[in-house]
Amino acid sequence: MTASQATGAAVRHLALDATAVATCARLADRGIPAILLKGAGLARRLGTEGRRVYSDVDLLVAPDDFDRAEALLAGSGFRSALPPGRPDPRLLWYERPWYAPGPAPLVVDLHRGFHGVADPQAFWTLLSASAQRLPLAGGTVAVPDVAATALLVAVHAAMPGRSDRPYADLRRALVVFPVEVWRAATVLATQTGAVPAFGFGLRLAPDGAALADRLGLPRQTSRTQWAAVRRVSGPAYVLARLAELPTGRDRWRHLVPYLLPPPTAMRHDSRLARRGPVGLSAAYLLRFARHIVSLPTAVRELRTATRLARRSRHG
Question: Cβ(107)–Cβ(39) under 8 Å?
């Protein structure tokens, strides 16, 4: 990172931190507590302040407060980053991004759960009960304690995405957190239904794989998980998930939204789809053609993910 890039990142971090404090205060005024999941809090836990780059504000609220929190943001000048109308069912159900008011394009990701967490209510209950206050940008915010941070780092590493940051966070956490912290994180993973994602995330790093064995975490992984973290093409990920679904009806319900997304999702992703009915039809045809062309590559990627899943299960 050059000096100018570092300066730009520092300025953006200050703006994000101020947005986190202001948004948490606005929610608290309406009786909605929130927890800053990553950002400055995670950097401080990992000892990477000034070096760890973050680009948005991730706030967790109780599942029962999620709709009310969204309404409050909308009424406070925030703009939804998702297309209007019925949400695309393939979008992440547990978070919604919002643009904060102001000239800078700052995003607040409002969470009611997290990737790999099967019980979002237990997740909120446990994290909020142990959260700690962090001085930040002239105010304070609630952040996860160290055990919850370890859980978040591991399950985030298991999350699909193009960024190398989650893996770097995992490697750092494996250095700075002692085994007692990871044992406490394993208990949290069990209580929140996050053991598969937690164990898989840990096993992505060599030191983490040894730790996962020491903690007694299962080796069971799926081709879908490997397809996700290897950043395969969209069609390959869909095929991986398709192969693991138990019934034809489940496979059909998974495939249709991908082959034929709602018009709102098409308009969100494609400029062509915004050009009236003709443009929308053309965008659907172009999407289908791209899937056909990408199919041979997707099949090769799926075979690789399948081999990795089998190898991981057998050590």
Answer: no
Summarised one tens digit per residue, pLDDT across range 79-131 is: 988 765 545 544 567 889 999 998 888 999 999 999 889 999 999 999 999 99
Task: Report the distance separating Cα 65 and Cα 193, nearest Å.
Answer: 21
Beta strands in 55-167 (DSSP E): 57-60, 79-80, 95-99, 107-111, 132-136, 139-143
Phi, psi dihedrals of residue 109, rounded to the nearest 5° = -90, 110
Whether the CA torsion 247, 253, 254, 255 is positive or negative: it is: positive
Closest by CA position to 108, among listed 25, 173, 8: 25
- The owner of tokens 């205060």 is 25
pTM to 2 decimal places: 0.79
The H or E element that residue 124 is part of is helix 120-130
Listing DSSP states for 163-187 in one string gives: -SHHHHHHHHHHHHS-HHHHHHHHH
Measured CA to CA, the distance from residue 140 to residue 44 in angstroms comes to 14
Asked if residue 226 has pLDDT above 70, the reply is no
Terminal C-alpha separation, the chain: 37
**What length does the chain have?**
315
E-assigned strand segments in 76-161 = 79-80, 95-99, 107-111, 132-136, 139-143
Cβ-contact 242, 223 below 8 angstroms: no
Closest CA to 200 of 162, 258, 241, 157: 157
Half-sphere exposure (CA, 13 Å, Cβ side) for 166? 20
